[in-house]
Amino acid sequence: MLLLSEEPRYAFGDSTLADRRLALLAQVFEPSSSEFIRKAAAGTVGHVIDLGCGPGYSSQMLANAFPSASVIGLDISEQFIRSAQSRQHGSSKFYIHDVTNDPPPGPPANLMYARYLLTHISDPAGAISRWLSFLSRDGRLLIEENQNIETENPVFVEYLDIMTRMLAGQSNNLYLGPSIGEIASSAGLNCAFDHVTPVRVSDRDTAGMFRMNIETWQHNPFVVENYSHEIVLSIMSLLDQIRASEGDSSSITFNVRQLAFGRE
Length: 264
Ligand SMILES: C[S@@+](CC[C@H](N)C(=O)[O-])C[C@H]1O[C@@H](n2cnc3c(N)ncnc32)[C@H](O)[C@@H]1O
What we know:
43% of the residues lie in helices and 23% in strands. By secondary structure, it is α/β, with parallel strands linked by helices. The chain has a domain at 16-150 and 171-200 and 255-262: Vaccinia Virus protein VP39 (Rossmann fold), CATH 3.40.50.150. The longest helix is centred in the N-terminal third of the chain and has 25 residues, at 16-40. The radius of gyration is 18 Å and the shape is globular. The site of S-adenosylmethionine (SAM) has 24 residues, from helix 1, helix 2 and strand 2.
């Protein structure tokens, strides 16, 4: 367990706005994630762990998918865990917890789920092998990360370019899908499911997620050193315009790599 005073290390922050961004992200990816979970889970699922659960939106999706299972959500952010607890219903439980350090509380899990977590972890191979050891014998570890993002929208292209560079500067990778595939084959992992699922997202929702995220990373030292305030303000303003637009047109596809691993 973490001390409450320890700082979270999540690059995109844990403010109320970051919480709202994750709520929108959960809504956008709910159909593709739910289908993945349904297809990739194996056997009877009685105990589920949501690794890096954030404010608990992914945990709620897991609880909906497995109504008779106990679900626990673990996150390094005290703020996010408080938010998850405030909306908690059913038997889900949430704990402040560094998933790269401590063994998770409770019995071995039948299903562990990590959506957009590994991209924030400096040693993804080490984390995967550790998590596998906390699974039940026939349990599954489900992972979702971006394989790539396709868009020709100039505002989204510029935003993604800054994000990619910023994350690379702190040894994180926005497009971790290919690396997980490599880790799986070089470590000889038992991969039960491996698909890249295209998720077409409306420009309005994309602009909403990106705009909320900029609020957090505009003060990142890499951004401050490499991009003028005018450039950042102009991306914000263009995203605001897209967010306020009518209709559900889309010029962006998130290709999400979805993998499920077993213990042996
Ligand atoms: C992009 S969010 C994903 C939240 C959630 N899985 C979802 O899909 O809605 C990544 C989360 O991982 C958490 N996180 C990052 N490093 C962590 C660590 N070492 N241990 C636990 N949580 C961590 C962050 O605090 C953040 O809530």
